[in-house]
Design goal:
- The protein is mainly beta.
- It has 4 domains: 84 residues, Immunoglobulin-like, CATH 2.60.40; 91 residues, Cadherins (Immunoglobulin-like, Sandwich); 91 residues, Sandwich (Immunoglobulin-like), CATH 2.60.40.60; 158 residues.
- The protein is built from 5 helices and 32 strands.
- Strand 24 and strand 25 form a beta hairpin.
- The N terminus is likely disordered.
Length: 473
């Protein structure tokens, strides 16, 4: 009896349990999720959690998502996180949709993620090398920045101040003050650049590294020198500056061989004095090369040769036969004889014209004239009235002045003849008298040439020729 009772009770319990389960099944529901996040999150960022109406342990999974790969889900907790941050871009995917399932859940959860559009700005530091000594306005480069609005660029600070400009629209950096781009002074220039994206401002650092270059600055040379210098005479020094030891050389010159240059100092000197002749080469030029540790530039040297009086030169109305030591005074001889048979004049009168040295002929002539004994047609009268080649200050030379003509005859005579003048021969009157009846005459024809002799003032076999003095003011 007890055994039957126990069997019946067990059957009743089983029947009761079976009926309870069939009549009240568990119904687990997943909740939909709507969430809003800013675009450009980071990978792994938590979006939210899918919930159910049950405390039962569920296993979650993603059934589908658009775009694919954007979301991951924790299968135990239902927590949603960012799987691919690049897909959270408002411009591309303003909404992300996900369907989430769970075991034993009777429905799927619809997850809707709305992406907020944010002010996006990305900047990059800027670094570039350039050579020193650029030109104002030279482009250096453009800073890199991206945003979803119109970008505006400005320089917040820079070292050294004033070195750079930036285009407010493009971000292009340019040289503002080229003098600051000097490797020796500022090997590196920096600037803080502000980039504004509709109110969202970020800064970047611009770094400009200067390359050291061989620096060389030269100037063309101009100088003057009197003709007929001496070999070795200094003309001047060409001007050049560099950051290494400079070396100077002459690449070419006209005329060839006229100049030398000191390879170390750049001083120009006379190499061949015969080429410094105003009549032949009034201007000499040379191309000078200046080397600065491999950086070579050229300059032009121009030397103007100054015309100076020379023995045998036809100027100042006649042929130059004497020049003083300073080169600023001298005497010229007329090309032609005034006469070949005029008497000296003043016979029987002591005039006091006794100077024999160079420079006394004019005084002698004026003394004779002042004595009032200038007879018509006499030698003194002819030179005192002479107006030749624009000059009217001619006079009769002293014996010392005729001696200077004689001493330079080899130079003077060819010029006289080539210009159609009268050759010097026989005797010529001097301005210095010996006494009341005799005066000096200079002999050019041997024997006895090169000497002054005493002749009667009344002689009519002696030639007359004038000279004049010149002065350079």
């Amino acid at each position: 009896m007890k055994k039957s009772t126990k069997t019946l009770l067990l059957a009743l319990i089983i029947a009761t349990f079976s009926c309870s389960k069939d009549d009240n099944p568990i119904n687990i529901m997943l909740q939909d999720l709507e969430v809003t996040v800013d675009e450009n999150p980071i990978t792994g960022q938590v979006i939210g959690t899918v919930l159910s109406d049950s405390n039962s342990t569920l296993t979650f999974s993603i059934a589908s998502q658009t775009p694919n790969g954007a979301i991951e889900i924790n299968e135990t907790s239902g927590e949603l996180t960012v799987a691919d941050a690049t897909l959270f871009d408002f411009e591309t995917n303003p909404t992300i949709a996900v369907i989430v399932d769970a075991n034993e859940a009777s429905n799927s959860s619809t997850v809707t993620i709305t992406i907020n559009n944010t002010n996006e700005l990305s900047v990059q530091d800027f670094t570039v090398p350039i050579d020193e000594n650029p030109i104002n306005g030279d482009a250096i480069g453009t800073v890199q920045a991206t945003g979803d609005a119109t970008l505006a660029y400005s320089i917040s600070s820079q070292t050294p101040v004033g070195a750079l400009n930036i285009d407010a629209t493009t971000g292009e950096l340019t040289v503002a003050d080229a003098t600051l781009f000097d490797f020796e002074t500022n090997p590196t220039l920096t600037a803080t650049v502000s980039v504004d994206n509709a109110g969202n401002t970020q800064t970047l650092t611009a770094t400009i590294n200067l390359n050291n270059v061989s620096e060389l600055s030269i100037q063309d040379f101009s100088g003057t020198i009197n003709e007929n210098p001496t070999n070795g005479d200094a003309i001047g020094t060409v001007q050049a500056t560099g950051d290494a030891t400079l070396a100077y050389s002459i690449s070419s010159q006209t005329p060839v061989g006229a100049l030398n240059i000191d390879a170390t100092t750049g001083e120009l000197t006379v190499a061949d004095a015969t080429l410094f002749d105003f009549e032949t080469n009034p201007t000499l030029t040379a191309t000078v090369s200046v080397d600065n540790a491999g950086n070579t530039q050229t300059l032009t040297a121009t030397i103007t040769v100054t015309d100076t009086p020379e023995i045998g030169e036809y100027k100042y109305g006649g042929i130059i036969f004497w020049i003083n030591a300073a080169g600023d005074e001298g005497l010229v001889l007329a090309l032609n004889n005034l006469s070949t048979n005029s008497a000296w004049g003043c016979v029987g009168t002591v005039t006091g014209a006794t100077g024999t040295a160079i420079g006394t002929g004019e005084t002698n002539t004026n003394t004779v004239i002042s004595a009032g004994c200038v007879s018509s047609g006499s030698a003194v009268e002819q030179v005192s009235n002479l107006n030749l080649n624009g000059y009217d200050d001619w006079f009769l030379p002293s014996s010392g002045e005729w001696a200077e003509v004689y001493n330079n005859l080899s130079v003077i005579q060819p010029v006289i003849l080539s210009n159609g003048g009268d050759d010097l021969s026989l005797l010529y009157w001097c301005s210095n008298e010996n006494n009341a009846y005799n005066v000096a005459a200079f002999l050019f024809t041997p024997p006895g040439d090169g000497t002054a002799y005493s002749f009667q003032k009344s002689s009519t076999t002696i030639r007359t020729r004038a000279v004049r003095a010149w002065t350079i003011n």
